[in-house]
Specification:
This protein is mainly beta. It has no helices and two strands. This is Molecular chaperone DnaJ.
Length: 58
């Protein structure tokens, strides 16, 4: 049996990329820069400046 590896998620992600009802958003922790004020990579977005958010409503 073959299993598909789970995508790497960052702590700020609410969903995996490609999940229906989710989309990319600017990371609130670093304001999209990927870095914190002291120059370290943002742990919430993994330094990308982007997180996956649920955009569906119901």
């Amino acid at each position: 049996m073959t299993t598909t590896p789970e995508p790497d998620l960052n702590p700020g992600d609410e969903a995996a990329p490609g999940t229906p009802g989710a989309g990319e958003d600017v990371c609130e922790a670093c304001a999209g820069s990927g870095k914190l004020g002291d120059g370290r990579s943002c742990p919430q977005c993994g330094g990308s400046g982007r997180v996956m958010r649920g955009i569906g409503g119901g």
